[in-house]
Design a protein that fits this description.
- There is one protein chain.
- Helix content is 52%, strand content 10%.
- The protein is an alpha/beta fold and 466 residues long.
- Among the domains are: 134-171 and 222-263 and 401-462, no CATH class; 310-399, no CATH class.
- The strands form 3 sheets. It has a 4-stranded mixed beta sheet with strand order 6-7-8-9, covered by helices on one side.
- The longest helix has 22 residues, at 244-265.
Length: 466
Amino acid sequence: MCTTTNSPETIEALKKYSAQIEKLARDLGLDYYPVDFELVPNNFMMEIAVYGLPVRMHHWSFGVRYIHQLIRQGMGHSRIFEVMFPGDPCRAYLVNGNTLPENTLVTAHVLGHADFSKNNHLFAKFMEMAGGHILEQAAARAHRIETAIQEHGQERVEAVLDAALALEPHIDVNRELHRPLYPESNLKPAPEPEPDPFQKRFRSLPGEKPHHDHHGATRRATIPPQPEYDLLWFIANYAPDLEGWERDIFLAVREESFYFYPVFACQIMNEGWASYWHARLLREADFLPQDLYLSAIKAHSDVVRPYAAERQLALAVNPYHLGFSMWEDIIEKHGLSNARRIMKEEDDFGFVRNYLTKELAEKLELFVYEARNDGDIRISDNDIHAVHEAILSPKFNYGAPRIAANNLHVDGSLQLLHDHQSDGRGIDLSRAERVLEYIGRIWRRPVTLHTIGDRGEARVVTSKRV
């Protein structure tokens, strides 16, 4: 039972088992939009995984990611079983070089993802904003960018993409995707204080000129009116010299970033939920041949294992293992109906903080570690709150430093501010300098970033190219 799924016989068998698994999933209460499955070669699957979408704007950074993924896969550290895109319908891609048992398991896994993406509140919210047809929209944007390359040249278009993709995580997920510009009303100054009795008498003397209220004149509104964390939106709408096609690129990257955010913010929940359901569906699928079931369960064990290769200690959390273990614990203690309520209401932040208990963390041997300068690795903390924060801190603010547009000066120069207090972490100054170079090229005026150094001292990073 190790044949790949690319012969007519194995494809027909997969279609048969998939239809039976879908019926079983509906019978067990899974609720999802229709799923379109497609078998693709491994190289195409890698491109989808690297680009994030089947058809997306071309950029050199995706090529770098592709090479990195190719090396990891060649070393046996990474393997792609499926890629699923939420929507109505959902789109799921399976590798035709994987075995029939593996793709049978993946079919069940995808149905768990589809159930999660339709019912989870965060997915539903962002799906409503970004639309359920992201694949078609992304393909249309890619075509427009290719047209821009023909009209304006590769170098100009790539400079805009460099800046937009460098800021890809810098959106404000608490704001709407489609939001209005700032109000255009001018700021009104505070009323002039009432003059004292001497001033009143002095002004009434014969020959004195009337006093003009210069302070009553209107003045330019502050832009932004408050720190603006949606940098892609701000640059697209307020960069003084951007052309229409350049703004379109920024807004395209921003919309795709909104689409991807729920996948990022619910990874542990989502992968765990899909893993729980693929295990249960396989277990209850009495129509599967015994040898196929055993091979599929072996693949399940490889996916949700807690340890690194050859049972070495894992220094990073496997979201499949953690999520699967947490859902099993929740369902055992609170029942499936409560688990479905949690699935609908939470994201990874609430899920981990509220349902990763001390007992389960100890059972899973979760801990916080530190790497010393000599290469030695030591356990530094196993307190449950420290474990929670170690898991969740990389997810804060889409995994990026919290940077705001703070002031657009009259001369068009831009001041950015690093909110290091709420950020809770420092900033890589060398990386910040590179990103500021990208921004400076398309802002075309001076751009400064105010942050702090390693010792807490104030630092200012300035774009050098204007």
